[in-house]
Design brief:
Largest sheet: 7 strands, mixed
Number of strands: 17
Shape: elongated
Number of helices: 23
Structural class: alpha+beta
Radius of gyration: 32 Å
Length: about 725
Amino acid sequence: MDQSWVHGRLFSTEHIDGVKEFMSFIQGKFSENVEILCPCARCLNQKYLCQSLVKKHILMNGMDSSYTRWIYHGESFNFDVVKHPIDVHDNADLAGSSHGANVREDGSTDLVGSSHGENVREDDNADRLEGFLGDLHAAAEEEARRDGENEDADAEPHDKESFFKIVMKEAKRQLYPGCTKFSKFAFVVKLLHMKSLYRISNSTFSAILKLLAEAFPEHNTLPKSYNEAKNLLKELGLGYESIHVCYNNCVLFRKGYAHLDKCPVCGLSRWKDEERKKIPQKVLRHFPLVPRLKRMFATKEASEQAQWHKLKRQPSEKEMTHPADGEAWQDFDREFPDFADDARNLRLGLATDGFYPFSEKNTKYSMWPVFVVPYNLPPWACIEESNFMMALLIPRPKCPGKDFDVFLEPLVEDLLELWTGVRAYDALTRRMFKLRAAILWCIHDYPALSTLSGRTTRGYFACTHCDEHPLSYGLRSKIGYFGHFRFLPEGNPLRRNNEFAGLHESNNPPSEFSTEELLAELEKVKHVRPGKRKRSELERGRVKIWSWMVSLWKLPYWHKLKLRHNLDVMHIEKNICESLIATILNIVGKTKDTAKARLDLKDLGIKKELQFREDGDSCEMPRARYTLTNDQKKDFCEFLRELKFPDGFASNISRCLNTDGTKVQGLRTHDCHILLQRILPAAMRGILDKDIYEVIAELGRFFRELCSKTLHKDVLAELKQEIPLC
């Protein structure tokens, strides 16, 4: 039997084919479930392992070169053996072999990860490992070849080991001498995952590592502390950069400000203790985006997924199942055809929201993570948490507000670099290419719209569709928005027969700024900077729609985007559902049907049946048709208590009912999602009047269609006409 592959290079085509031939020989001698001696360079025929694990060991460690007669694996003593290694210069016919290996001019061969071959099952774990490591080995070879050539003008400097080379090195490093189950890297990653999953403190984790290091055999490579474990991940490009921030969020202490001890704007110290100068006031954690996007093309499987939107997606004119089916994506492709030509160029989404890291009850401190989501992937992969890339982790006792812009500086620099293009390796084509990426839109709740856009979301110009002639109207204690009938199609009877027709000068829909008008408005506020400052004389007494110009406008393509901001539908559903239930059940302190609301009706001269009725020296607040009686409240709550859902469909909503069964409280976001779309339309039928019930049912249908996996464009157009939103 030909054993020349034993002396060849690991993961080369000859080595991979030789391992396959050896395992085929084993399967002919032994049944599938029989454990065999492992002949790899580490085990040396000293351990009995399952056949799949033996294959992995030989792929990773190579075959023991001194084991020339495979007598432990069924080979006869009289079997002829070819011992000399193969010289690729003497085998030019390899270029035309069925395995697709190509001989380069320098004599090296292109590696092919056979886990993606036509004759190999996708669920074969050994082949997956083979293909993954083969792709990384090919990437390392390609970079080594490029380093040896004359660098082009646009070539990247290679001042440190690449990600591919480091992974290959760590994948072969033993946890301790003789360990075959784990490499150092795999074991440390699993430990760090457990630390995050079970919330193990840093000191406890370091103590566990120290105990394991003592328990393991001598000369083990286990990190001695949590910081050493983090450094290992940082070498692989999985770390982050700590950036000190001014306490008032004026500047980031980086670049020209890196050496300063005081803020150049407000003069406040950078340190909590000026004498020791060790603990900064605030720290922004920046996770570099470019290396992670490059790794999306490090393996063939990941590279194929990153091009799914163009190579495998089936476009439909009437349905939307992927962001690429939307008008915003298609409009971007028309504006930048050179970007759209290469399917590997990434379209990204930017998402952010605040959370309380120390529990929901502790609201004194919040943090704001900023995530980047790649949309080139298939729909089921876009929503996987493993594909969400944290770009920034913003510290703040409260919402950063307008100061959010100063934290975006490192991310915007990454995006500017990605728009120009960075050199990356594509395992699918085994070639270097210029990787580009662009942000298509942002996703956030309504308050964060002001944070990421710079547009006001309060007062008379809070409506994002009413840049001119807004629908706002001043009431006794708040600002109301009336006249949404103006968004209805011409000829709709509600455009004339409604009580709000006379509140505004015109019945035409409010107009929005054009791109030129918008840029002119932003030009007026481009001087406004984050941080603690005094308002200038020009700002006082003037109602501004745009408060400042966010750094996202530095992106060359930002002004041409069709849809820059998206509101998170789950937040909207929660707000609507809570307000709807509180008003129907007339929950004190949460209902929208208050005494001030009834007085506003009198001031507007509408809904006389709901206005206060004078009864001598007192006034009576008449009961509204949309509120329930006590008996109806009990029936409604009993209906919720007896509801049964399929496993995983919804949580136990009955836990949100109070003891007397007349109040619903403590609803979570997903509870509101289910209630508004599925439960309320069924629960209110027969309890409320027909016209009120139909409105609730239509509202539930609207959100149900909006949240479906497949959006029908004709249905969306119909919903837009029937339910005007502002």
